[in-house]
Amino acid sequence: MARHGGGRGWYGKVVVAAVGVTALAAGASVWTAQAGVVGGASHKAAASAAHGSEAKPVAVTIVHASDKGARGVNITIDDGPDPEWTPQVLDVLRQYGVKATFCMVGTQAQAHPDLVKKVVAAGHRLCDHSVSHDTGMDKKPEAYQSREILDAERMITEASGGVRPMYYRAPGGAFTPYSRKLAASRGMRPLGWNVDSKDFERPGTDAIVATVERELPNGPTLLFHDAGGDRSQTVEALRRILPELKQQGYSFGFPVR
User: b/e string for 157-174 if b means 16 or more Cβ within 10 A?
Assistant: First the structure.
């Protein structure tokens, strides 16, 4: 997600809660799948394959481009999963046949493994969004950055049943050369964004839609949220934005790797 002040923000409380749960159980410029839908037996096969394979390094540069090319759009969803809002986001995406990339916070994934599995089963991709969503982690020691990235990777992979995150998005864009290199060495392409919908601020559905329409020429990767508070405006904005973009001739894809 975009930076909204320093430190951990609302995640200070979420981390404590999650640990407790665990203990209890047309663009102005040319824009330079967990592959396939995974469900039932095929989900188990994918999980088994993920367990048995080593992560292959990817590029360390921050990616924005879509695998659908110049008219491609990447929908990215940050900070979940959340038991109230993630299912609603999934319903809207399913309604319009759109696949997205879910940037998950490690403690949230650990607390809600059923939702992580639903995201994977619906054919969406996973992204490591750190353990505690510390937007100041670029100012922290490399050992701290390593724990935030690698522990979240483990939490998300375990929650998914063995499917690894394919990307790493630093909280608030707080990338460092070290964090990018570490993530890339684990097969997680550093993931940026071009359009911040500002939905985190809850400005109203109309404002979220207007921001996306205005900023879309900046590039293909759109940022939304499914956690961190009331996300009803996000759900309704997606319900309007997705068919609108389809009507304009855009295709929905994943960030290139």
Answer: bebbbbbbbbbbbbbbbb
Residue of 233, 199, 239, 39 whose CA lies nearest to 119: 39
CA-to-CA distance for 37 and 168, rounded, in angstroms? 21
Q: Which residues are catalytic?
A: 78, 225
Tokens of 15: 């981390």
pLDDT per residue as tens, the chain (257 positions): 455 433 334 344 344 333 333 333 333 333 333 333 333 333 333 333 333 357 899 999 999 999 999 999 999 999 999 999 999 999 999 999 999 999 999 999 999 999 999 999 999 999 999 999 999 999 999 999 999 999 999 999 999 999 999 999 999 999 999 999 999 999 999 999 999 999 999 999 999 999 999 999 999 999 999 999 999 999 999 999 999 999 999 999 999 99
b/e 29-56 (16+ beta carbons within 10 angstroms → b): eebeebeeebeeeebeebbeebeeeeee
pTM assigned to the model: 0.83
